[in-house]
Amino acid sequence: MGCRPVLAIDSCHLSGPYKGALLFAIVYDADDGMFPLALGVVGSENYEDWYWFLEKLKGILDGQEVIIILDRHQGILCSVSELFGVENHAYCYRHVKQNFSSFFNRQNIRGKKWKEDALLLLDNIAYARLDIDYNEAFEKLVHFNGDLARWVAENSPKHWAMSKFLKKCWDKMTTNIAESFNAWLREERHQTIYTLLLMHMDKLVAMLDTYMRGTDKWKSMVGPKTKEKLMLNIMRSAPITVMPYLDKCTCLTWQMSGLPCPHVCAVIRTLRHDVYDYIDPCFKVSTQHLIYSGQFQPLPTHNMPKVCEARTLQDGQGNVFPSLQPSQVRRPPGRPRQRRIESQFSHKRAIHYYRCNGIGHNRSKCNNPLP
């Protein structure tokens, strides 16, 4: 298909008349764009439903080995390990960071600055590419707080730390692209299942056509996002006098991401070679054309039931069933939420009061003297 073998899988609740949950798998195209691969409607997020969805997804992949990025839901842990193997399951680092932040709040540590320092140390642990950098960051966290370091050691860093994860994950550590797909279906989630699928197909066809036409506007062998990352690495590179053997880099950035790191870019500049020759083929325009060259298959309608005049259902074999009723879904306690629970790491626009030029308050809470 051409996409990188990294799948971001997530779910969202359906708020239409039939409730349930929508499970979906998203992959990356040649320019880090969102390419929806599969989605399924299930009753709830339990082991049986996750296993059914991942089993169908494995059939679509046709034996190709992939990396699954998911959160640590108990049903997900069991089903992924059985179908894809434990070594191919990467935990979403954004969820890990949220759990770490919640654990920090339960400790007797006061001060916003301390929490920011702890989260920064966790980032250094997660994004360290070399074992020596990982050990150095972990030792700093041990000196900072032993309980926090113990939490990191007990929460399987081999599934979310870049230096400990054994498989190539192309520098993808979160399910943010799946969250983008979740927001993309914001309106469709309130419809019936049939309407949801039809609306999704219309939006999907329009999106694929837009991406395919946008590929013709690429001004180089790679997409705009990839070119921006590559140009940044070239700007960071410095001339060298030693001519090493250009096969791999000891910083592991080139091997993990598929794009030449600043060290490799410096060697390429010294050798006067074309930097695009050292980019992984999955980022090139030919791969993008391959991804969006397939035909869109409509939903099959064979053996679909028909609604009779007596409001009964008749299947393709002529069997008659009573009228279809929505499934019985237990209503959760409390008042239904109207707004989604925002992540504590989401960026919000700061309030700005124009008279005192202060940030974080408005007129009613301003204590600054007016000019």
UniProtKB/TrEMBL annotation:
Pfam families referenced in this protein's UniProt entry, alphabetically: MULE, SWIM
SMART domains referenced in this protein's UniProt entry, alphabetically: ZnF_PMZ
InterPro entries in alphabetical order: MULE_transposase_dom (IPR018289), Znf_PMZ (IPR006564), Znf_SWIM (IPR007527)
Keywords: Metal-binding, Zinc, Zinc-finger
One MF annotation (Gene Ontology) recorded for this entry: zinc ion binding
Coiled coil region boundaries: none
Alphabetical list of PROSITE patterns matching this protein: ZF_SWIM
Region named Disordered: 319-342
Domain named SWIM-type: residues: 240-272
PANTHER family linked to this entry: MUDR FAMILY TRANSPOSASE, POLYPROTEIN, PUTATIVE-RELATED
Protein name: SWIM-type domain-containing protein
Organism name: Vitis vinifera (Grape)
